[in-house]
Amino acid sequence: MLLFTSLDLVWNMSTQAKLFIVATPIGNLDDFSFRAIEVLKAVDLVAAEDTRHSKRLLQHYQIDTSLISYHDHSDLSETLKLIELLEAGKSIALISDAGTPLISDPGYRLVTEARSKGIPVLPIPGASALTAALSVSGLPTDRFSFEGFLPAKQVARVKRLQLLEVDSRTLVFYESPHRILVSLSDMNSVFGDSRKAFIGRELTKKFESHFLGSLQECVHWVRSDGNNQKGEFVVVVAGNDDAKDEDLKLKQAMTIVQSLGKELSMKKAVALASEITGTRKNLLYSKALEELDSDSK
Predict the structure, then answer these.
(1) Does a structural domain hold residue 53?
(2) 214: helix, coil or strand?
């Protein structure tokens, strides 16, 4: 039995105006949800990253709601104009060119301002290249870090990658066609030839393709065919297994410190735990002091 109509799921029109964060398709138009379409039809205004691009989407679904431009370069005054409209009782939907707004897309300032004014902000979930790539990558998804786009200049890009080198979480990057090869080459240099990675190219689109292998193999795959350098990319890179081992070793050492600490001084407990597990004594002592300080608060 149908319990709610689609508009019941959007909102009661007599209530306070709301800001809706609406996900749009990342390629395949069939990935647009019924709820998203109803919201875009019902709101007073749609704030879009590129009105020309979004106009085609709205026309496809026979949505005639007015469009206004709102993007990364919009200044504070444009944000405040939208806030004024919301405070005046107008409901607004924020959309990006593709996918979920605020995931490497504009909207953070608008959401922050709306929440500071007590304006309800509601998500209308849907497509996201980030989660789409993770779900099919075959790499661990229990812990991951979304890094967005790497810096355009190599020196800055390499520095960012060096900071991530020991991260044990799965890493997710977006990349453009003109930088995919150099970015993968830098990942290969910093993370090592054997680090496993997944490339999702043109996800949900006509020429969608996937590749899973070592970073060295990923570089070769992209370099070997010009078509593999076209389109939009999500690169998923496995975390540092050595870092995972270090994390596990530290946890084991801390368990030993806590057990021995019931009978021995912290200094002796740390020394023994360090000898048993091979964990650096200074690191273990600092961690023990942190936990002791945390327990005393």
Answers:
(1) yes
(2) strand
**pLDDT tens readout for residues 108-146:** 999 999 999 999 999 999 999 999 999 999 999 999 999
Over the stretch 230-273, which tens digit does the pLDDT of each residue have?
999 999 999 998 766 677 678 888 888 888 888 888 889 888 98
Same domain, 197 and 248: no
CA dist., res. 251 & res. 279, Å (int): 10
Q: Rg of the chain's alpha carbons, rounded to an integer?
A: 24
Q: Do 90 and 13 touch, CB atoms closer than 8 A?
A: no
For the chain, counts of helices (H) and of strands (E): 12, 10
Task: CATH number of the domain at 57, please.
Answer: 3.40.1010.10
Segment (H or E) for 146: strand 144-149
Amino acid 78 reads E
| Cα(209)–Cα(227) distance, integer angstroms | 10
Looking at the structure, do residues 148 and 36 belong to the same domain, yes or no? Answer: no
